[in-house]
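Deviation from plan, reported transparently: iron/sulfur cluster complex.
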Amino acid sequence: MTSSTTAPAPAPSGKRVLLAKPRGYCAGVDRAVQTVEHALDHYGAPVYVRKQIVHNLHVVRALEARGAIFVEENSEVPEGSIVVFSAHGVAPEVHEQAAERGLKAIDATCPLVTKVHHEVRRFAKDDFDILLIGHEGHEEVVGTSGEAPDNITIVDGPEGVGHVEVRDPERVVWLSQTTLSVDETMQTVDALRERFPLLQSPPSDDICYATQNRQAAVKTIAPRVDLFLVVGSGNSSNSVRMVEVAAAAGAKAAYLVENAGAIDETWLDGVSIVGLSSGASVPEILVHEVTDWLAQRGYGDVEEVSHTEERLAFALPQELRREMRTKS
Ligand code: SF4
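Because the crystal trials were delayed, the predicted structure below was used instead.
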């Protein structure tokens, strides 16, 4: 692989890959995966995990192989066991259920999701109607809504705006899921503001730095490519949004692929330049497998195009750090 500053001249065939940076793991995913790994090291298997710890099958399978058991609800976890809550966050009632069952809960909710939960509690306390822009049924939206179900209305994109009802148009705020398309979210906000001119904005961006950076890196490359591949799982919101962003930014075709095995050879027909990136829950090994697959088909010239450097890292959950300290 070469960097954008040292890239060799394109191969004679003109076939090459533009690899977006940043891509792959964000700080919240890295922390969540490490939380399960450290819990397994510290307590031994099994460690129960409520929901997919992050939305990536490869990661889930790898943790299962080490002794993690993934469940949908606390009721499936034997009383007194250890349970890790996923990066997407949970409603307060999930913590209450865990306590009732005597579970030892470790909360791997991304701190940037927790920040949105705090915002919900603050605006609900001031009796605002909260218009939460996000995808109905997504785990993060379910968890965030659970902080103040009576105050929240979910707005699933610009087309949902017409149905929104509020009690007092002078006390309305919009918040959002962390992994949305930046552009589409602003369209939704514009439409909401037409209906509610006094609509307040979140105190700071809810769409997280990783989502924004990955979309911006995709936009830089997409106009130059014939085909854009995003490595990620179908239930990964930020990965799906990256495909949409690539298509909207000018890629002639854009696809989400779980791994190299999911790429259709015919997509390469007539393609000179392939754009490549990966969602925030995708380990880099899956990207390497795709670059290897492409190299075997003449796309061995890879240029990494950097939009920005990311250095953010989050500490492990406090409850786990405390346990690790006391037993070390
Ligand atoms: Fe946190 Fe953003 Fe990563 Fe989600 S995508 S885990 S909100 S940093």
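The chain is about 35% helix and 20% strand. We consider this an acceptable substitute for the interim report.
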